[in-house]
From TrEMBL:
This is Peptidoglycan recognition protein. The keyword Transport does not apply. Gene3D superfamilies: Peptidoglycan recognition protein-like. Residues 15-153 form the N-acetylmuramoyl-L-alanine amidase domain.
Length: 172
């Protein structure tokens, strides 16, 4: 039987609060935006839960987002955590209602995510295609290709440019 959840740690497992008024994305989603959290990394469940709770609080309290911005977050120990999930997020202005934002937890300007994190991302993307949540011909870009930001960091941006779905320019 297929893992319909693709091994994602549900938001209910790391937060006591459900998403605030989630709006479903139209599936299959055609665009994946790779980002980094620009925070410390995390490599165990407790640290990741605390970090994600702090990110969520910052998004709501300081940035005035409706809820946590990114769709999914990937830890150094290769776990994928649900953020806004398959709902409209607040990760890339102008693209939130037609994409998912996958944020590697950490700062990847000068280093790469762990092998476990990179494998988790690839596995999640493949599973999401198999489950028809993600279009089999999806486009993948780095956050900085769509917004004035250093995210996902130079090292990570360089790496994702070798991934099969990466696009230099989006055709809209």
């Amino acid at each position: 039987m297929a893992d319909l959840n693709c091994g994602v740690v549900d938001i209910a497992e790391w937060s006591s609060k459900p998403l605030s008024d989630p709006v479903d994305l139209v599936k299959p989603v055609h665009l994946v935006v790779i980002q980094h959290s620009a925070t410390a990394p995390c490599s165990d469940d407790e640290t990741c839960k605390t970090l994600l709770s702090n990110v969520r609080e910052k998004h709501v309290e300081r940035l005035k987002f409706k809820d946590i911005g990114n769709s999914f977050y990937i830890s150094s120990h290769g776990k994928v955590y649900e953020g806004s999930g398959w709902h409209v997020g607040a990760h890339t202005k102008g693209f939130n209602d037609k994409s998912i934002g996958i944020s590697f937890i950490g700062d990847f300007r000068d280093s790469l995510p762990s092998e476990e994190a990179l494998k988790a991302a690839q596995d999640f993307l493949s599973c999401s295609v198999n489950n028809e949540s993600l279009d089999e011909n999806y486009d993948l870009v780095g956050h900085g290709q769509l917004s004035a930001t250093l995210s996902p960091g130079a090292k990570l941006q360089s790496l994702i440019q070798s991934w099969s779905h990466w696009r230099e320019k989006l055709i809209q």
